[in-house]
Amino acid sequence: MKKAEIIIKAKEFVKKQHQNDYSGHDWWHIIRVTNIAKAISIREGGNEFIVELAALMHDVADEKVSGSEEAGLRKVNKWLKENDVEEQIISEVIEIITTMSFKGGNLGNMKTMEGRIVQDADRLDALGAIGIARTFAYSGAKDQPIYDPDLTVRDHLTYEEYRRGKSTAINHFYEKLLKLKDAMNTEYGKKLAEERHEYMIQFLDQFFLEWGHDEKSI
Ligand code: ADP
Ligand code: NI
User: Fold this and answer.
1) Is the pTM of the predicted complex or chain greater than 0.85?
2) What integer pLDDT is reported at residue 105 of this predicted model?
3) Are the C-beta atoms of residues 58 and 96 closer than 8 Å to each other?
4) By the 8 A CB rule, do 90 and 158 touch?
5) Residue 162's pLDDT is what?
6) 93 touches 53 (CB < 8 A)
7) What is the DSSP code string of 49-76?
8) What angle do CA 39, 54, 108 make, to 5 degrees?
9) Can you tell me which atom of ligand 1 is nearest the CA of 134?
10) Which residues contact 74 (CB under 8 A, 6 or more apart)?
11) Is the CB of 58 under 6 A from ligand 1?
12) For residue 120, what pLDDT is reported?
């Protein structure tokens, strides 16, 4: 099968996996991440086929999408094998999506250029106007409040606390999103992250102005 054909089939497969997600991991998240990853790859290198395949598959192994990471990885592995993707490409794609997730404060170090690109693209979709929208969508889906001044920002989260602890949409900016710009891998990714970071700072300033609080009091 030609690479272009594999990509078309991969899109059909991935779209199906994401069709019932309302936690910010819907199909359009995958499309945006894939597009940003390709834009970074044009400027920074990496194998375009691996970048695109890994970007498309990157959230299938998310427990929110497939129930568990193991089940998701098995699904991806099986699909890649059945569609005659080369063994070496399969192992790189699997390696990328396994390492990628943020998991609280425990940042995975990506081993390959393709991995660094896809990770940057995923982080960029958590920033800026889209990042703000996704954060409130996720919070609504998980019964979290918009903001509660009595819930303090949590630091150094374990994976369990990150996923299941009590938080708010606004606290999530401080617990994760505002840290991302300093964790970017690529130059182009960093530049985009800085713009999106600034936009979130403006949003938070305005939010607290309207709330009647000084940001420092949270
Ligand atoms: P990753 O895809 O890196 O594992 P997550 O699944 O943790 O990232 O989060 C994806 C998006 O969901 C984030 O960008 C954020 O907008 C939102 N999100 C995740 N956890 C929370 C949370 N505790 N509160 C609010 N939004 C969250
Ligand atoms: Ni993602």
Assistant:
1) yes
2) 45
3) yes
4) no
5) 62
6) yes
7) HHHHHHHHHTTTTSHHHHSSHHHHHHHH
8) 95
9) 16
10) none
11) no
12) 97
Q: Which ligand 1 atom sits closest to the C-alpha of 163?
A: 23
pLDDT of residue 36: 98
Which atom of ligand 1 lies nearest, measured to the CA of 144?
Answer: 24
Which residues of the chain fall below pLDDT 50? 102, 104-105
Report the mean per-residue pLDDT for the chain.
90
Q: Is 135 in the pocket of ligand 1 (CB under 6 A)?
A: yes
Q: Is 124 in the pocket of ligand 1 (CB under 6 A)?
A: no
Q: Is 171 in the pocket of ligand 1 (CB under 6 A)?
A: no
Q: Could you tell me the CA-to-CA distances from 114 to 27, 33, 165 in Å, in that order?
A: 21, 13, 32
Per the document, the length of the chain is: 218
Q: CB–CB of 10/3 below 8 Å?
A: no
Q: What CA–CA distance (Å, rounded) separates 92 from 111?
A: 9
DSSP-derived 3-state class of residue 125: coil
pLDDT digits (tens, 9 = 90+) for 98-151: 998 645 445 568 999 999 999 999 999 999 999 999 999 999 988 999 999 998
